[in-house]
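Reopening this one. Same input as before:
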Amino acid sequence: MTAPPLGGGAHREGSRYLYAPFEVAEARIEANERVALERWAAVDHRLTRIEDGLERLERRLWLAVWAIAAVVISEGVASLLASLP
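Same output, byte for byte:
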């Protein structure tokens, strides 16, 4: 004689108390899996927002670098033009 399946099968033999702990444990596992998936989705959303913020910050920093380089070059050109006779 083979043992009946542990899942919620329709064809079970024996006491319901034999399978009730397995069903409760399975429900808890499924609930924990759903919670874990929601947490991963929240972490992914937060990481996406952080990455977007870092990209904006990087663009602003490069803009500042190019602005400083433009000022330095313009000052150099102005001093060269002032030194010409």
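So the earlier flakiness isn't reproducible anymore. For the record, Residues 16-83 form the longest helix (68 residues).
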